[in-house]
Fold each of these.
Amino acid sequence: MSDAAVATAAPKLTRKDFVSDQDVRWCPGCGDYSILAQVQKVMPELGLSREKFVFISGIGCSSRFPYYMNTYGFHSIHGRAAAVASGLKISRPDLSVWVVTGDGDGLSIGGNHLIHALRRNVGLKILLFNNRIYGLTKGQYSPTSELGKVTKSTPAGSVDYPFNPIAVAMGVDATFVARGVDVEAKLLQDLLRRAYEHPGGTFIEILQNCNIFNDGVWETLTDKATKADTVLLLEHGKPLIFGKNRDKGIKLGSDSRLQVVTLGNGTQEGDILVHDETNRPLAYMLAHLETPTPIGVFHATIRPTYEEAMSKQLEAARQKLGPGDVNALFKRGETWVVR
Amino acid sequence: MGGGVPREKSLGQPRMEEERKGAMRVETQAVAAAPGKRREQRDSVVIRFAGDSGDGMQLTGMQFTTESALAGNDIGTLPDFPAEIRAPAGTLAGVSGFQLNFSSLEVYTPGDSPDVLVAMNPAALKVNIGDLKPGGILLADRDGFDAGNLKKAGYAGNPLEDGSLGQVQVFVVDMTGMTLKVLEDLKLSNKVASRCKNFFALGVCSWLYSRPIETTLKWIQDKFKKTPELVEANARVLKAGYHFGETTEMFAVQYEVKPARISPGTYRNVTGNTALSLGLLAAANKAGLPLFLGSYPITPASDILHELAQYKNFGVYTFQAEDEIAGVCSALGASFGGVIGVTTSSGPGIALKQEAINLAVMVELPLVICNIQRGGPSTGLPTKTEQADLYQAVFGRNSDSPLPVLAAATPTDCFTTAYEAVRIAIKYMTPVILLSDGYLANGAEPWSIPRFEELPAIPVHFRTEAEGFFPYLRDPETLARPWVKPGTPGLEHRIGGIEKEDVTGNISYSPANHELMTHARAQKLAAVAQDIPPTSIRGDHAGDLLVVGWGSTYGSIAAAVDEVRARGKRVSQIHLRYLNPLPPDLGGILRRFKTVLVPEMNMGQLLTILRAMYLVDAVGLNKIQGQPFKISEIAGRILRLLEG
């Protein structure tokens, strides 16, 4: 069941309804502020009553998120948000359950729960803030930090090959895989709406700047001077074209690899790949494209959710066996009477 | 162990004598005495079926148990199987055993040592013969003792023939041969046909102890209904074994064990794991809540997951999580959503869950954590029993992290204790650890089936009123915080593992507040203590020696205490269901006895706690062999202590 389908006629809500009374304690200038603002902007527009939203997080800077949302919230333990949220969503499919995690929380200590929640297609809306660094513990490299990264724990540079979060999500057959950027407000809002409407689990990697321990990590993707040439916006049904002059595109080469080509010189728009969110192999290839870096929805497909399948089993058992009779169950099997 | 211990009966005031007098008639089928045979009465018989793990000994034992229960005996059982699913056939590692104590008297344990050993091969003989009582009966399958199997078991000659077995009545029966002969015309493969031989053994034993076989015949019908040729084969072999007993001149005596005097009621056999599952389910139903089990398979706890997975029409969610941590976390998430969350595991899994259990302590949500203990440390002895996770349960989390810890005493007591664990978890908004162990989990005894309507009420209150709501505003009596279902308008709030400000539940790093909240969590446990009923004492309320136990040692201690009391010794027993907090009256009781003995299947964990809490100079009796105490071990220790 999509969360949109459970929406009830709610009174008109505004951003303020989703702002809690707690002071936001992220460092000034942190990318998390923008993400929080987009979430608080989009939530009231979704048509679901505020009390139906639950935000669950693990540990890390991003995981402070639930405290700032005036919804139900659970700040759990390091890496386990997806597991806590799974139990909630499975037993309470009527709720819209959002998981806020980071590259350390979600991909290092909590990697196991993340991949299993995604492959099961539990209807969790997972937001993974990726700043490629450990912020709360003051600056160690993370499982998404690039090779050679010099941090407090890697003075000679990291020798630890990083995860590609989108490729991880694609690899476990997640049904909705997208990438946003903290400062790309409109795109992020669109992705949040899409996630909410998607009937099943969703994974959004949000590229986020940590201005204290990893400032400028995504600069080439966010700097107005460069981003047109470094970022590829994925739009379903539209050709994969980018560049300041909209003159570059992605083509499938004769070697079955993606090629970055320049329009003109015999290459026409008709040669450029058209993005299709339902095309899983294309999404796999795009997941590994580094320059330009794709943002937007890589893949969206529909598969029954875990909680739906489980609810159906419970309902089928009730249909077949009737509501449980505890006394009858007690007497199941061989019994005898002593007088 | 009829009727469920510690049914008030056994743990109650010194009423045990009267209780035995309430004569009961058991509905059972009379078995005619076999012609030409002498019939002798026995009060109690302990029988052990042993064979290769592929020989169907567990099944044979369970069927013999059912026959005995229907014959009106009180019973106690203990399966003992190898950790390997299929160890190489014929080897010592692959021996699987099932012991049953059936009696016309009250049964407390599966019995110290068998009167009868059924050995299907030399390895089974070698592993078990040392336990057989002097003068006991050995029933062996001749065909199982071929040269290959003798060699695998490390026998130079055939012990059935070389007189090396000593004071044992040896009956060697050609069980496999006769099985194959009876099935000759059925055109079964030799392998399939010979696998029926366990029913021959069951048939012989059923005759030998005057058990009715009709129930097993019916069971065969049901079990193999999809393969009619196996119904025919197994039924034929069972009858053949029975008739062999009747007609062979080998057996001059047929034994009879009269029905026991058991409290009136409707009974069924349950293992501890089944009883525990039913207790959780009944409590959730009583509370009117769905049950969510988040679990990861581990021996010996997995059967609870299997059992609860069958109860979907009761609104039971079972979630086989990706790991132990996800098991407990998902259960806690479900509890947050207003259902009763449960997780089940054994010691190694509990170790992984502790951080999440600590979160449950902090966020004060109901959660039941079942630890079906096994031998440790590390992987230890997965299929053997031990009760060495008491420290882990009480002390095994970072910081001051108090939570109630309960322990079940017998297989049927797993029902009562699981029910109580759910009740406490909800009433006090707290995680509760329930300790069982491999011995209780797999052991079975007759369960006096309760009426659901008569079980204690479990009131649940979900707060819906927004006015005056604070997440950590406590009930003045129980100190429970309000339980609010997400989805309730106007009560949106956040909880989490960071220290909470008193009342508001906001994040707080204030030193004074942390101390206040630490005390509040401790006081909640003190509130639970007020809910503990007065401790029952078996025996006099003061005396020379008090045996204090917890968990699955109940039966052995009770039998041992009865034995020494029968000799006029001033010995009493208490058995603790509540291990944290301890019963408020415990200190006073301990002081009324000159000596306090604490038998445990660990190095002395309750002993240490009692010594620390009450400054009592208690002494321990410790057995760490993966096997339960023998009655004689405890009785012997008591007598030695009394002699000083």
Note: The first helix of chain A runs from residue 32 to 42.
Amino acid sequence: MDRGNAVLQVRNLRTEFATRRGIVPAVDGVSFEVFEGKVTGLVGESGCGKSVTALSILGLVTSPPGRVARGEILFEGRDLARMTPREMGAFRGRDLSMIFQEPMTSLNPVKTVGNQVGEPLRVHLGLSAREARRRAEEMLDLVGIPEPQLRYGAFPHQLSGGLRQRVMIAMALICSPKLLVADEPTTALDVTIQAQVLDLMMGLKNRLGTAIVLITHDLGVVAETCDDVYVMYAGHIVEQGDVYRLFERPGHPYTQGLLRCVPDASKPGRRGPLASIEGAVPLLTALPPGCRFAPRCPWAQELCHRQIPDLVAVGEGHLVRCWRAEEGGKP
Amino acid sequence: MGGFIVKRLAVSVPVLLGVTFLIFMLLHVVPGDPVALMMGERMSPEVIDRVRAQMHLDDPWPVRYVRFISDALRGDLGESYKLRRPVVGLLRDAFPTTLKLALAAALVAWCIGIPAGILSAVRPYSLVDNFFMGLALTGVSTPVFWTALLFQYLFSLKLGWLPVAGFYSAKHLIMPALVLGWSSSGLVARLTRSSLLDVMRHDYIRTARAKGLRQGPVILRHALKNALLPVVTVMALQIAFLLSGSVITESVFNIPGVGRIAVGAIQNRDMPLLQGAVLFTTVLVILGNLAADLLYGWLDPRIRRDGGVGR
């Protein structure tokens, strides 16, 4: 997958949490690359390690109990995982920033939204309050918030969920970061608002040249926005490839299952219950010894339950973590 | 805003009536004849009866209660039996002293409590945290009179830095304010700590970190204002109580404040004076509550009455 400049290279990342039942690896040996001006999707069910991966990149894993135990997070060649909190702080909010899932709780309730949007400018660029205000109002306008001068002084509780997420986007992009990590940015929003917010993010990406890591469980969102896709399951990456290949020829039974779960409106004749993947994500405290998807996999063999498969190439830049990958994941 | 204040004050009328009634009935049933106490035991019963009649103490209690209320509404709280002066004047003279002591004590409590709470919350369960929380525990659990005696022994008798008691200069204010403030600082510290620890778990703190803010600004600019909400409520109430006179501190240090007036009134069965002091206290507590609500609105825009901007 040589697609120009890699802004971010994550190599063999392992993030673990100390719990009463021992060390739990929420992210286990994850590697991926994010290219300039491209959108890279991290896809998977809840609890598969997507969000922890995102927080690890920004150095925001709550510690204790969590810590980045192993691996490299290379941002323009510098390893974020080895940085002191002080060094990291200089990057966060300026060169790399993040949008969170919950626009309702991610804004400080006692500060005006304008103040919060302009804050990175004052922290990183040392702008005066007045200049920060002018730029913040411009940014609020850019993300499509009506009457930005008036909204500047509004408090988060006075805005709708969609507007709040726009505020979050404005805040994240105000320093024109090179990398934006968006953790389920549309999950908490109405469907109609979802499309607007995604359009907005993509427009700003094209305008500012920002690379985006988009974390979602929504394959519709992936199909519309992503260039590259990484499918995660129980802390592992189980499949990776460019979006067209992955949707056309999904190699991993889990990816196939996810794709089947998307209701298809083009087949109106097909009625009956929606498709689902049987079972649930294994507890990270009780992972199976072999392939982590094996207990739910309809095509699992004896080997699958015994040994963890490696990622193997099934096409150009298309890797699948499955013992039966060569067979196309099908019996 | 103005409408809100008026409404809140109107609601407090029943509270005031209830409290006055309660204190009135309490004084009515306690043993001890104020007239006998006032005139000495050797006075003949006929004289005592005559005086009782003069002071309208023979009237049935509902009549006396209604008379008390209607007088109070006109700003007349009667005359002290013992001191032979209007109660309103006595309270007015004593209040500035109590006010000075209360504000100084509150200042001490905040200046010790809030920083101690913040330092504890920054590194929970660390040595610093344990030290401050241990200190807070002693502050909360040590009786004020005992702290007062210790301070008097140390700072007056041993070191000779401060006067033992009385209230004549700013120097006289230092020790009582420290004693009184110390006891509330423990509460403030514990409250600040737990509230800040709670706030630090919120999503918006993570957002602030994601902007690249360091720990210091995250706490001071993003967490503290949220964390101080419950502290403010408690402190506003505490000031109201301090203003009504810290009975023990004023007694130990011989400070002529509202608290000492109340104690004297109880000892002398000085009903008008005690009723006046209690009524005064009640009004202060109600005003303290109102102040807490207004402060809350100022700190937290979500409950601001005018709805803020942009609606």
Note: Residues 87-122 of chain B form the longest helix (36 residues).
